Structure formats: C-alpha cells, structure tokens
Amino acid sequence: MASIKEIRGSRNLRLRRFLAAQVWILIFLVEEANSAGSCLAPVRPFVPSDSQAARDYADIIRRDFEVYIADIQDYFRCLEQERARAFEEAREVSQDYGRFLELVGD
C-alpha cells in the first residue's frame, strides 16, 4: 500500500507535468498568433460635439489624430504583410496537397 507521502509526491509530479505542458501550449499559441500576423486596427480619435471642449482640448485631439494616422498606416502595412504571407502559405499548401494526391494515387 502506498504511503501518503508517495501519493502526494506522485500528485505533485503530475501537477508539475500538467503545468509545464500548459506553459508550452501557451507559448506555442502566442508564437502562432504572432506568426499569424494579428493586425489590430487603431481606435478612432474622439472629437467632442461641444465646440468649447474641442477648443479646450485642441492640442490633445490634434495629437490623437496624428497618432491615428500613423497607426492606420502601420495597420495597412501589417494587413499587406499578412496578405502576402497567407498567399505564400496557400501556395505551399496547394503544392503539399498535390504531392499528397500523387502519393495516394488520386
């Protein structure tokens, strides 16, 4: 019969292995998301409807628009890079599929 110490030790070992596996899965998913080129659109700048508030915060609002314009250009570049990556991947997968069909005789 196993002692309580042995049972706890085996549980701890299983828990450590489980947690290590979870960490590796998380790392893999983060890397996959990064390599997939997750492009995030910038948030539109806010313009108050009150003209006095717009004047009071004109410098901040102007800066928000400048940041948005720079960020939207980065976003468009990201989308184009992701589009190019996806087309290349689709071409490679199509070639892989052709080789697979040759292997199975279809």
Automatic annotation (TrEMBL):
Keywords: Plasmid. This is Uncharacterized protein.
